[in-house]
Write a structure and sequence with these properties.
The protein has helices spanning 5-14, 18-27, 40-50, 55-68, 76-81, 84-90, 94-108, 115-118, 123-130, 138-148, 160-170, 178-184, 192-205. By secondary structure, it is an all-alpha fold. It has two domains: 5-32 and 154-205, Orthogonal Bundle (Endonuclease Iii, domain 2); 40-148, Orthogonal Bundle (Endonuclease III, domain 1), CATH 1.10.340.30.
């Protein structure tokens, strides 16, 4: 797979830190896949379905929702019109039904932006806007920013894997706190999404 100019720039920038340089040499170019096929609304709907569930179970529930909606992810109005019993039959809990309905209502009201509108909004603005939705926290929005919108400078410091990867990278006995990692990671800007990708890989290739 060709390495993008942004990925090459990120590798060069992060390699200024010797331990990152060694990790990059071992892992190779970043394979940070961005799914641009789903709208932010669709991505957040999937995120709610996957919360606290094994991936296969969540996909089965989503499959039943799609089947009940005529073979496609229901648009906000259609989701709001679905009876609670129908959503329960798909496998959603009461808390997830409440979150899905709030997502649909916020999408219908324009709070959940389209991909085109997202392109005009800064990262922090999207985090502030989308975390108003029930069941959507900062981490979920950060995953959308990285893997759905391709934002290059997101460091999800609350992510266990990112903090564990940094612990292994530097050889610390314990993970740093999120706020401390945010300060440490400032030097990785404007490529902190790539730093996060490499820290996730560090949990796979570096000894604990």
């Amino acid at each position: 797979m060709p390495v993008s100019a942004t990925a090459r720039a990120a590798m060069a920038h992060l390699s200024a830190e010797p331990r990152f340089a060694a990790l990059i040499a071992e892992v190779g170019p970043p394979r940070l896949a961005v799914d641009r096929t789903r709208s932010p609304y669709q991505a957040l709907l999937r995120a709610i379905a996957h919360q606290q569930l094994h991936g296969r179970a969540a996909e089965a529930i989503l499959g039943r929702l799609i089947a009940a909606s005529g073979g496609q992810v229901p648009e906000p109005g259609a989701l709001l019109a679905m009876p609670e019993a129908a959503l329960r039959a798909c496998g959603f809990s009461a808390s997830k039904i409440a979150a899905l309905r709030d997502l649909a209502a916020q999408a219908a009201a324009g709070v959940v932006p389209t991909r085109r509108v997202c392109a005009r909004l800064a990262d922090d603005a999207l985090v502030e806007r989308l975390t108003r939705i029930r069941g959507i926290g900062r981490w979920t929005v950060e995953m959308l920013l990285i893997f759905g919108l391709g934002r290059p400078d997101i460091l999800p410091v609350d992510d266990f894997g990112v903090r564990e990867g940094y612990r292994r990278l530097v050889g610390d006995a314990a993970q740093v706190k999120p706020r401390a990692l945010a300060a440490i990671g400032a030097v990785w800007a404007p490529y902190r999404s790539f730093a996060a990708w490499y820290l996730w890989r560090a949990t796979e290739v570096l000894e604990g």
